[in-house]
């Protein structure tokens, strides 16, 4: 299988340091997606790295309150929980060309605006005739209405002009609830491929909401929280509950991106209960070999294993999951579950509050290439798993690649990483650094050495972020000019920018400018800043999307 840009980039960490920097820059120049700075999916790529390594405008030298600030706010009709997306140089039917910002709202709307000046290009509603967005289903997590919560995904090669895929929840006049997959033309917002597609499913099992040997997907009991994944022409969805209101189980459902036909269904707690897939909005991750990775919420886990080490009833609550997509069918390929998983689920201390991120390939102390994934949940432990051998379950110990304890608070977010160069006297070292911002805690940086994560902080920001913490994003120009961006759940919202090589050096925050110049609304939980073409985009729950950039850019 042809490697993706992200995986070509990841492989560079295994190259000797002097060659590594040159090869990294060559990859950037040869990769159209990076050169264009498109952000077509949650956190930039299917690895969910949060890294834009092709940002040539914003640097630590010019991101300060005198040169950088709020340019404008994109007004929309509802709360923005989904990360905005960016498609550059889109050719419209009238032959005009725009950099397009896609914004989805809880009012079941999708807006396309010019990413440079905020002009509205199109707006569409995803509710059917006589319908409204869903009520909050008695859960205050998203209130007062639930519409589009998960980050959409864009395929620029799909349809005549490119396609935006989005899942929307609504309620009809008879109080029936609907979950639908929509495929919208990138230039008009019109429905494509016969859409929308009503989401319905069943799976063999006797768990919550089962009948005649099948668990049944009830659209009223779920919301699509995790960002959508597009992998090998299939749109994958993962389903979360409303609070912990049963009955619910752990659903993943795939749809052909060109026909919207359902291609595969997997339930990971089919003979139990719970096991929501929410990840604080982080998208399902995937590698170039077609495997999908995610962190599952609290739920039934079968501690009795079969001969292959898998739960004997197929229930994987509170697990770090690896799924195969071979033959177009989802199946469990591997997993990790902590030794005290039942106790953690009983106490709602689940792993599923965090998002899984696939790390760059790295060489360990013995010269072996390591393909790692990282995840942290409410128990605040950093779990690093080998994607070729995740560790499964042992009731006495965690058989995983590395575990780092005692350095974080609980996580309701996902990390980002940077790949930056450093060195003096003509030597060059490329460092992989992981950034986490936990609940009521500071943004923290941890550095890898020989494929092991140091438990000693590389640096730490001064700001303490309230619940639920922050999901950071990173911009850089190749391996230089790294900036870490974060915006917390505060009123008003505050956008922060830090030197990626030293988080103690805060470059900018949106409270610094006098007279409230850079105020842009109230902050939202879980939403990461999105950086492209010298601008930073941040969704809010009150005002729409704040757009930041150089104040006097030519």
What does this structure look like?
By secondary structure, the chain is mostly beta strands. The chain has a single domain, classed as Methanol Dehydrogenase, Chain A. Helices cover 6% and strands 38% of the residues. Strands 7, 8, 9, 10, 11 and 12 form a 6-stranded antiparallel beta sheet that branches. β20 (251-256) and β21 form a beta hairpin. The longest helix has 14 residues, at 17-30. It starts with a helix and ends with a strand.
> Any low-confidence stretches, pLDDT <50, length ≥5?
1-35
**Second CATH tier, the architecture:** 8 Propeller
* Strand proportion: 35-45%
Largest sheet: 6 strands, antiparallel
Work out the helicity level. under 10%
Query: What is the CA-CA span between the terminal residues?
Result: 43 Å
The CATH superfamily bears the name Quinoprotein alcohol dehydrogenase-like superfamily
| Number of continuous helical runs | 4
CATH topology: Methanol Dehydrogenase, Chain A
| Number of E-state strands | 44
Shape: globular
Mean pLDDT: 93
Counted up, domains total: 1
The Cα radius of gyration reads 22 Å
Provide the descriptors you would attach to this structure in a database record.
4 helices; 554 residues; five-stranded mixed beta sheet; six-stranded antiparallel beta sheet; Methanol Dehydrogenase, Chain A; mainly beta
């Amino acid at each position: 299988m042809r490697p993706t840009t992200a995986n070509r980039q990841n492989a560079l960490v295994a190259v000797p340091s002097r060659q590594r920097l040159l090869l990294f820059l060559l990859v950037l120049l040869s990769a159209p997606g990076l050169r264009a700075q498109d952000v077509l999916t949650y956190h930039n790529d299917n690895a969910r790295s949060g890294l834009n390594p092709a940002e040539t405008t914003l640097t630590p030298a010019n991101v300060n309150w005198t040169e950088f600030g709020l340019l404008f706010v994109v007004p929309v009709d509802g709360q923005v929980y989904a990360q905005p997306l960016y498609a550059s140089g889109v050719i419209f039917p009238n032959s005009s060309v725009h950099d397009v910002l896609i914004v989805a709202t809880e009012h079941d709307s999708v807006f396309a605006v010019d990413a440079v000046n905020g002009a509205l290009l199109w707006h569409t509603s995803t509710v059917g005739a006589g319908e409204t967005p869903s009520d909050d289903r008695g859960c205050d997590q998203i209130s007062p209405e639930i519409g589009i919560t998960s980050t959409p995904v864009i395929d620029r090669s799909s349809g005549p002009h490119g396609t935006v895929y989005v899942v929307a929840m609504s309620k009809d006049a008879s109080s029936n609830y609907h979950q639908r997959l929509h495929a919208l033309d990138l230039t008009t917002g019109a429905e494509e491929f016969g859409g929308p597609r009503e989401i319905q499913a069943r799976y063999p099992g006797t768990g919550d909401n089962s009948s005649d040997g099948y668990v049944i997907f009830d659209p009223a009991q779920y919301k699509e929280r995790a960002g959508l994944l597009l992998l090998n022409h299939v749109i994958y969805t993962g389903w979360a509950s409303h609070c912990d209101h049963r009955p619910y189980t752990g659903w993943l459902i795939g749809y052909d991106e060109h026909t919207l036909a359902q291609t595969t269904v997997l339930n990971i707690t089919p003979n139990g209960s719970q096991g929501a897939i929410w990840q604080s909005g982080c998208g399902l991750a995937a590698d170039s070999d077609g495997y999908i990775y995610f962190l599952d919420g609290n739920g039934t886990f079968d501690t009795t294993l079969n001969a292959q080490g898998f739960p004997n009833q197929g229930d994987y609550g509170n697990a770090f999951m690896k799924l195969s997509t071979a033959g177009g069918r989802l199946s469990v390929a591997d997993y990790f579950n902590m030794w005290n998983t039942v106790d953690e689920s009983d106490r709602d201390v689940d792993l599923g509050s965090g998002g899984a991120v696939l790390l760059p390939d790295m060489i360990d102390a013995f010269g072996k290439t390591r393909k790692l994934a990282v995840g942290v949940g409410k128990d605040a432990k950093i779990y690093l798993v080998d994607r070729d051998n995740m560790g499964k379950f042992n009731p006495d110990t965690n058989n995983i690649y590395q575990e780092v304890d005692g350095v974080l608070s609980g996580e309701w977010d996902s990390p980002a990483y940077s790949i930056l160069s450093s060195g003096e006297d003509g030597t060059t070292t490329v460092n992989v650094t992981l950034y986490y911002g936990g609940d009521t805690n500071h943004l923290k940086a941890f550095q890898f050495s020989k494929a092991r994560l140091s438990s000693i902080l590389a640096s730490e920001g001064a700001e303490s972020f309230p619940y639920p913490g922050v999901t950071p994003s990173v911009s850089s120009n190749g391996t230089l000019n790294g900036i870490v961006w974060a915006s917390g759940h505060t009123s008003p919202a505050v956008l922060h920018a830090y030197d990626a090589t030293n988080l103690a050096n805060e470059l900018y925050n949106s409270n610094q400018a006098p007279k409230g110049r850079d105020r842009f609304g109230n902050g939202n939980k879980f939403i990461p800043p999105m950086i492209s073409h010298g601008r930073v985009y941040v969704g809010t729950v009150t005002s729409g999307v704040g757009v930041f950039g150089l104040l006097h850019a030519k």
